[in-house]
Design goal:
Elements (H helix, E strand, L loop, with lengths): L1 E6 L5 H17 L4 E4 L6 H9 L3 E3 L10 E4 L6 H9 L3 E4 L3 H15 L3 E5 L5 H7 L6 E4 L16 E5 L5 H14 L13 H13 L5 E5 L5 H12 L4 E4 L15 E6 L5 H15 L2 E6 L11 H9 L13 H11 L4 E5 L10
Parallel strand pairs: 1-11, 1-12, 2-3, 2-4, 4-5, 6-7, 6-8, 9-10, 9-11, 12-13
Bound molecules: iron/sulfur cluster.
The site of iron/sulfur cluster has 15 residues, from helix 1, helix 4 and helix 7.
Length: 355
Amino acid sequence: MKILLANPRGFCAGVYMAIDVVDQLLELCEGKPIFVYHEIVHNRHVVQRFRNRGVAFVESIDEIPAGSIVVFSAHGVSPAVRAEARAKNLTSIDATCPLVMKVHAEAIRFAKRGWQILLVGHREHQEVVGTQGEAPDSIQVVEKPSDIARLSIIDPDKLIYLTQTTLSMDDANVVISALKKAFPNLHEPPSSDICYATTNRQIAVRTIAPEADLVLVVGSKNSSNSVRLTEISQNDGTPARLIDDASEIDPAWFEGVKTVLLTSGASAPEDLVFGVIETLITRFGGEVEQRDVFDERVEFGLPGTLKELMRAKGIDPDSRRIRIDREADTTEWLERKHIPNRTVQVSIRETDNLL
Ligand code: SF4
């Protein structure tokens, strides 16, 4: 079997940062309880691993004893949640991804100008709940074109759309086109809200999937960007399965399958991808071909509140940077496991219509 390994895949800069925040706190707080509001990132394994180390995940600030430490997840929270945390005298460490914060800032800016905001995204998703909470009277969520009829618009000339960061470009464009048709003067966000990591992983899947008989996406069912990767492949005609880890692989999927594209969502740890490779190679034999579509070098610094805590303990936050070098790590692991492998650079022509 040939395994095509998509690059980029897996952890994005926002997820690295959010996980790093909880990691650093576990060391800093030495046994003091740490509470995380909502799953730190949408991955079952990441959450369980932190639970095993004593971290408590809560869905309400009420569940946290006064004076404790709370981490806000990568998806962001509304100002109401921040205020609740302040009222309980919690030490809040904000692990919201800076790219989510950018959407919050846009919402606040346009709401202050008296504009109405149409937020394209999934109503129940934590990120959308947080963004809407920044200006609840000015923001209406649009999930699908049929929602447009129910919108209440005061001035169609003072109307802008923003989007959730992890949507599929295809799905978003369907809704945005319908919105533009209904409101021809609808303004666009200053820059795309769908983040670089979502876009890059989607382009990689769309580029490589036509060569594969099956696509495996490692990620949890509540991970928006992982689900979108699966849908993109399926919509383009290559069957795809979303799995949390190798234990969910069903041998029945592989009848007649010679080439598998393996990728992972932005919140899925790389060791789970390695587990899938090992399972496939053990069962079917074969080789791995790493397909480099984009070279991602984005990194986000730790939140200021955490840096302050670190300095108070005599730790220089800049000396504790996470290392991102996925290709080198993957090659080293493949070599160590004696799995035949090579790396192929994929060039995307600017004219390719991949989105
Ligand atoms: S998927 Fe994008 S917006 Fe979400 S945490 Fe990662 S970089 Fe940030």
